[in-house]
Design a protein that fits this description.
Number of helices of chain B: 11
CATH class of the largest domain in chain B: Alpha Beta
CATH topology of the largest domain in chain B: Rossmann fold
Oligomer: heterodimer
Number of strands of chain A: 12
Number of helices of chain A: 12
Order of helices and strands of chain B: EEEHEEHEHHHHEHEHEEHHEEH
Distance between the termini of chain B: 59 Å
Shape of chain B: globular
Strand order of the largest sheet of chain A: 6-7-8-3-9-10-12-11
Largest sheet of chain B: 8 strands, mixed
CATH architecture of the largest domain in chain B: 3-Layer(aba) Sandwich
Radius of gyration of chain B: 21 Å
Number of strands of chain B: 12
Helix content of chain B: 25-40%
Helix content of chain A: 25-40%
């Protein structure tokens, strides 16, 4: 079995008819074995919904279309029973909030052993217990013998997140999906957890799909990035290159708006308005309402991703237009504070 | 009461103004002996921003609450314009509350969900004796000033986005013409593209109205951007304080250096700490950072070092003169 994950034309819709919320609208992504793919976006962009759709964690009332293959096997049409076997064994998941992810009444050890026994990684309780201690050690917990017996409330946030990661990797998954796994942690602890993800990947050919809003974390991890906005990918490519020479006006605006040394106070570059809410619709490009380069054509159809360099794509006809390689730089973002918010 | 808030501001004096809010030796111990804040002294000047940065549990919000008179310190004093705020009564206290306002962290919960924006702002103004005519005149002006269309006056919080709510909370704070505004993680809940808008707004308002900000955040990049001076807190104490750019470019405490290197994406050689914040109910002896500090020596177990002058105006509480050079040199390979 290979760990090649390929998502094609993924759309996720909550509800039906007039009530339908189109959270993800046609996402393509591909992760090679041991590769890293970062879905970067702000709240409501559809990045978490994309990740959860791959695991088919949505039930009734949700329509997922498109194709998701893992090592060539189509997941969208798998019976739920088979899908259940696959979750946790071939695809591991690390959610944002470790406190909510753990059962407060059971020890960390019991929760780890459950995964190992259910997926028949080991065949006895004794072996499961020994493996649980090993796994806690592997995720950098200093005193695994004690932690294995601890209940979640006895651990700090960082330790809990390490325990959740231990559960997620217990079955040596082909793919690990991590949804903002460090957002609830302090920065010094966050740095150590990001380091842990990198180490875990180095020691196996597990691939990693990381969902984050934090440009810095994307940069730390490396690999490929997909910048999401209003349910679509607006720009993709190797992280270093995308951050160094962003092509899409949204990526450019997002990077320019981050405070960094040397930017005078009160002069941060600003994208006017706010990101659209989940499912909020626009007739053409969803970023058009905030874009300094907007043209009439932008309001007609959502632009498709087109090649803008080696391994790079962007969904903007304006910056893509004439000659590839010399990126148009958006200078239209104002450094003023008080522009009117679009209602 | 002056009513110059919305008049096109005169230029704010460049030099650090008079000390406006001055905290000396604050100590707060909770319940069973959790020393949330130990011996914290901070001085805020008119028209300037003091940033406080630190991780959860470092005492930054407890400090803010003592400065706002929402908590009584066990030891130490807080002076506003020369008067001890914890001894104020009656008129003087009301006046303090008018001059000292807060923009809280979570815009979703800091405004009453059952009041329109106009009612929320009016509530604050009425409490400070503004009459109906003045409220009617100033509320649209305030909304306009924070970048909200005056039609938002009739909206309820659930009809606004996070960025709009935070602008509304700023408008409410400014309604009483304060001199000091305490911003406790005021931009942390916002999306990055919206966060920049609110940071610029806060800076513009400061330049126009001469406000002093206490800007509390866990995000060092944001604090560096908006502050004149920065205090770094760890385990209830200020471990370093100095001009914002010096804290950023020339940190003098190992913890500050670690925070900087932990900020993802910054081009620093990474310092990854072992362990986590110690339990404030049971702190280590001596320097509270020594259990995680790569430079810790036996001497560090003796006592928490006092803040010592590093360069004029820049203080750090570490026995090493140049801890950061020591930390970076051995591991500068990466």
């Amino acid at each position: 079995m290979s760990s090649h994950l390929k998502v094609t034309g993924l759309t996720t819709t909550f509800g039906r008819g007039d009530e339908a919320v189109h959270a993800v609208r046609g996402v393509d992504l591909e992760i090679e074995p041991s590769g890293t793919y970062v879905l970067l976006g702000e709240s409501g962009s559809g990045k978490s919904v994309t990740a959860r759709s791959i695991l088919r964690l949505y039930q009734s009332g949700t329509t997922i279309t498109g194709s998701i293959t893992l090592g060539g096997e189509e997941l969208t049409t798998l019976p739920e029973r088979r899908m259940r076997e696959l979750r946790g064994s071939r695809i591991g998941m690390v959610p944002q909030d470790p406190t909510g992810a753990l059962d407060p009444l059971r020890s960390i050890g019991a929760q780890l052993m459950e995964v190992l026994l259910v997926h028949r990684i080991v065949d006895s309780k004794a072996a499961a217990r020994a493996r649980a201690v090993e796994l806690l050690d592997r995720v950098g917990i200093a005193d695994p013998g004690r932690v294995v017996k601890a209940k979640p409330h006895m651990l700090s946030g960082g330790m809990r997140q390490r325990a959740v990661i231990a559960i997620a990797i217990a079955c040596n998954p082909d793919v690990l999906i991590a949804d903002e796994p460090t957002t609830a942690l302090d920065v010094t602890v966050q740095a150590a957890v990001i380091e842990l993800f990198r180490e875990l990947q180095e020691r196996s050919d597990m691939s990693l799909l990381m969902v984050t809003h934090d440009v810095g974390i994307a940069e730390e991890l490396g690999g490929e990035v997909g910048v999401m906005y209003a349910g679509r990918l607006l720009e993709t490519g190797p992280i270093g290159e995308v951050l160094a020479t962003p092509k899409h006006p949204y990526t450019q605006g997002l990077l320019a708006s981050l405070p960094s040394p040397g930017v005078e106070r009160g002069h941060l570059k600003v994208i006017p308005g706010r990101p659209p809410l989940t499912g909020e619709t626009a007739s053409g490009c969803a970023f058009a309402a905030r874009c300094p380069l907007v043209t009439d054509a932008c309001h007609v159809v959502p632009p498709a991703l087109v090649r803008v360099g080696t391994g790079r794509e962007a969904a903007c006809p304006v910056v893509n237009a004439p000659d590839e390689g010399s990126p148009a730089t958006v200078s239209g973002f104002s450094a003023g504070a008080s522009e009117e918010l679009s209602a | 009461m002056t009513t110059q808030l919305l008049a096109a501001g005169e230029s704010v004096p460049e030099a650090p103004g008079r000390p406006l809010l001055d905290a000396q030796g604050l100590v707060k111990v909770f319940g069973t002996g959790v020393r949330a804040v130990s011996n914290v002294s901070l001085t805020m000047h008119a028209g300037q921003t003091l940033g406080i940065v630190g991780e959860s549990g470092c005492g930054k919000s407890t400090t803010a609450k003592m400065l706002l008179r929402l908590l009584t310190p066990d030891e130490g004093r807080v002076y506003f314009d020369g008067d001890d705020i914890h001894r104020m009564k009656g008129r003087k206290l009301t006046e303090l509350r008018r001059r000292l306002q807060v923009v809280p962290q979570n815009p979703q919960t800091s405004l009453n969900p059952r009041l329109t924006l106009e009612q929320s702002i009016a509530f604050n103004m009425t409490a400070h004796g503004y009459g109906a005519a003045e409220r009617r005149r100033r509320i649209p002006e305030l909304l306009d000033r924070v970048g909200l269309d005056p039609s938002y006056a009739r909206r309820y919080p659930h009809q606004m986005s996070g960025g709009q709510l935070q602008r509304a909370a700023i408008a409410r704070a400014l309604a009483t013409e304060p001199e000091v505004v305490i911003c406790d993680e005021a931009v942390s809940a916002l999306d990055k593209s919206v966060q920049a808008q609110v940071l610029n707004l806060l800076s513009d308002l400061q330049a126009e109205l001469g406000l002093a900000y206490l800007f509390i955040s866990h995000d060092l990049a944001v604090v560096e951007h908006i502050s004149d001076r920065v205090a770094v807190m760890y385990l209830g104490r200020v471990v370093e304080e100095g001009p914002a750019d010096q804290i950023w470019h020339d940190p003098r405490h190992p913890y500050t250096a670690t925070l900087l290197s932990s900020t993802p994406g910054l081009d620093h050689s990474r310092i990854v700490l072992g362990g986590e914040l110690p339990n404030p109910a049971n702190p280590p002896t001596g320097c509270g950072f020594r259990t995680r500090c790569p430079l810790a020596t036996d001497e560090c177990a003796a006592a928490w070092p006092a803040l010592m002058v590093r360069t004029p105006d820049h203080y750090a509480s570490c026995i090493h003169d140049e801890p950061v050079t020591l930390m970076r040199d051995p591991a500068s390979s990466s």
